[in-house]
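Hi F.,

I've been meaning to write this up properly since the lab meeting, where we talked about keeping a consistent format for the predictions we share between groups. The idea is simple: the sequence comes first, exactly as it goes in, then the structure tokens exactly as they come out, then a line or two of notes. No screenshots and no reformatting. I'm using this chain as the first example so we have something concrete to point to.
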Amino acid sequence: MTKAKLKKDGFMTSFLEKWRALVTLVKMQLKEKMDLGYLRSRKKLIFKITWLLIEFAAITAIIAVIFHFVKLLGLFSLTHDVPVSVISLVFGIMLALSLITDTIGLMKSLYFSKDNTVLLTFPTTPSLVFFSKLATYYVYELRKSFMFTIPMFIAYGLVVRGYGSGDPKGLLFYPWLILMFVLISSIPVLLAALLSIPAMFVYLFLNRVKILQYLLYIALGGGAILLMWWLIGLIPEDINFIESWGNTYWEVQAFLNDYVAAFAPIYSFTELIVGRTVGLSNVIFHAGTLPSLLLLSGLGCGLLLLCFLCSKPLFYRMASTPFEFKKKDRIKPRKNRKTLPFFSAVKKEFVIGLRSNAFIKLGGVLIVIMPMAIYLLNKIYSAMDTRFIGTQMTVCFNIIIILLIMLMTNIDIASVYSRDGSSSYLNKIQPTPYATLLISKLIFPMIIALVGLIFTVNVFAIEAGFGKTDAVLIGIMIYGVYVAHLFSGAESDIMNPQYEQYATFNEQTNNPNETGAGIGAILLSAIVFAITFFLSSRNDAGVWLKLAIVAVVFAILKVFTYLSKIKAFYKEKQS
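Output, unedited:
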């Protein structure tokens, strides 16, 4: 054998070994984050493939129906067409979302994942470990494309372009589409690998300066809230699409033209996929196909080279740094302050709620989402012309929406004591009355609910034109029902604890107390809706005062029965 032949065989052998090692590394990381157990069974594999095909076909059919009605109504074109700029806009949004998620994921996977030190000990090279990380996210990207983006383009090709319905050459669009997404799916991954470098430095800086981290979270959250309020405020008081469609149509056209001018590369990539209209016919391959394909290939190769030169050395440095030499934050000792048992228990629950993000999630629902939902609901109602009964129904609908949101948050209260699991006995051995420890778990949910209700009732009163007195009485009524339902859920957890379920895992899906709390929330909201509508439709004087008094009495009775059940049953149930 010649030296050239031996050299070629050696190169092929080395390449195949590295390829097998890369595939093995990717499989290991995919198994860690995805359930691949169906690969071991032919029946499970066939079922999985069949289900994916059904899901793929269903998504394609739904999008095809949407495109059909858009064409029929002529929303984007006077010729009843769907311009390429429309699907390019959706495609651009999907790429942007993928870029954001891939950047965050790759930042954590490349520079902060604990399995990097383990992967580097395998009989392979750091380069293969690095590229296995990219390949793993590339597989994720292909999977996401298969579940939405590719069905969208197939529906566009079928309904709008008519590929395959007449000219057999149109059938080339579908294998061409798959080939294009094999190439395009690598772009957000490679670009995210580069953006993960500055993202990593920003992440480290924010972790060192906690104040800036909190300020950034507040700024982002506040900006998102203000944006949503602004968008809801754009809803006109008189919704009449027929009269305003003339101006709206040309505003949409101007927006699409501005998008094409600002994001020309994405538009050219979209034309590379779906083709271009030449004369009266749609063609897949046109004069811009080859330049766009070369641009896409060059962009992918350039990004891959930059990743190898910039991201890989930093990845190896971060992964190979021993944890013993990493800087550790010094915890300053604090003097233990003596407080009353009740306040000490409340403080403990506050710290636990913050660390577990439970209070942040609850505040997001009750202080942000609930007022925003009521604002949106009343903006829609304000565009309607209603009579007396219709006005009373809108008021009652506001009340039932607020109640449903607030009472549904009490589902977690129905397992608030069971979540202590095997440590629940601590409530029994502490030298403190049982009620002190048990009620402390309910204080902050009630405070957060009160703050959210104040914001929501203010929004409701302003948008619905309610007086201050009636708004306060409605708020008292809703809060009374909320408190009664909250103590009812806590009481059910005392009477029927599920400590064994939570002894190992903190989350369960078959807790009967939570199921009962959810059903109770729906029934209680429906009952309050029926009573308020019946009394308000009769134009009964002082209806809100009467309902507020009834709700307060109802809440007091539930608190009394809760305390009575603690005294009578808690000790026995704990034993």
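Notes:
The chain has two domains: 32-208+262-320, 341-574.
The first helix runs from residue 3 to 33.

If this format works for you, I'll send the rest the same way.

G.
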